[in-house]
C-alpha cells in the first residue's frame, strides 16, 4: 500500500495492516487518519525540520469534494438531465401514465455491463448517459421501460450500443438509476 506523508508529501510504501508508519523525513503517521484527525508525534532522531513545519493543505481537495457533494445534492431524481448539446429528448413511456409514442424507435441497440461486444468493433465512444426511471412493479419485466429509455438516450447521442451498464435501485425500490457509455460499433467482417 502507498500513503502520502502529511509533512513532506512523499509517497511511503508500507504493509496494508500497519496503523503507524514512518516516512524518510522522520514523521510517524497513521495512513488511515485524515489531516484533520489527531496526528502521531514525530519519532526521536534525525528528521527534516522544514518538512515538519510545513502545514498540510488539503483545501483544493476539500473544495472539489464540496463542489461534487453540492452537485449531487442538487440533482432531483424526477428531473431529466439533458445532454451537453441541450437537444430535446424524445417523449418516453412512463409506467402509470398514458403511453406516448417515442420519436426515436428502439431499434437494435446492443447493451452490456462489460467493456466490449463479442464480434463487434468499437468505432467511437460517446459521452456517458444516465437517467432515473420509475420501476414498473406490476410488470413481468419491471426494468424494461428504464432500459428502453437508456437505449433511446444512447441513440439520441448517436450510439448503437451501450457499454458498462450499471444500475442502482433507490432505497424504497420504486426508482432505478441507470448509467452507461454509448458507443458506435460495427460487426466484425
- What portion of the residues fall into strands of 2 or more residues? 15-25%
CATH superfamily of the largest domain: Hypothetical protein apc22750. Chain B
Mean pLDDT: 75
Question: Which overall shape is indicated by the principal axes computed on the Cα atoms?
Answer: elongated
**CATH class call of the largest domain:** Alpha Beta
- What is the strand tally? 9
Structural class: alpha+beta
CATH fold field value of the largest domain:
Translation Initiation Factor IF3
Task: State the helicity in percent bands.
Answer: 10-25%
Based on CA atoms alone, the radius of gyration comes out at: 25 Å
Counting DSSP H or I runs of 4 or more residues, the number of helices is 3
Unreliable spans are 50-54, 77-106
Give the domain tally. Answer: 2
Order of helices and strands: EEEEHHEEEHEE
The span between the termini is 45 Å
CATH-derived architecture of the largest domain? 2-Layer Sandwich
Largest sheet: 5 strands, mixed
Please describe the structure with a list of short key phrases separated by commas or semicolons.
189 residues, alpha+beta, Translation Initiation Factor IF3, 2 domains, five-stranded mixed beta sheet, 3 helices, 9 strands, 18% helix
Explain the overall architecture.
By secondary structure, the chain is α+β, with helices and mostly antiparallel strands. The protein folds into two domains: 2-72, no CATH class; 108-187, Hypothetical protein apc22750. Chain B (Translation Initiation Factor IF3). Helix content is 18%, strand content 24%. It has three helices and nine strands, in the order ββββααβββαββ. The strands form three sheets. Strands 5, 6, 7, 8 and 9 form a five-stranded mixed β-sheet that branches. Strands 1-2 form a two-stranded antiparallel sheet. The longest helix is centred in the middle third of the chain and has 16 residues, at 59-74. The chain is elongated. Residues 50-54 and 77-106 have low confidence and may be disordered.
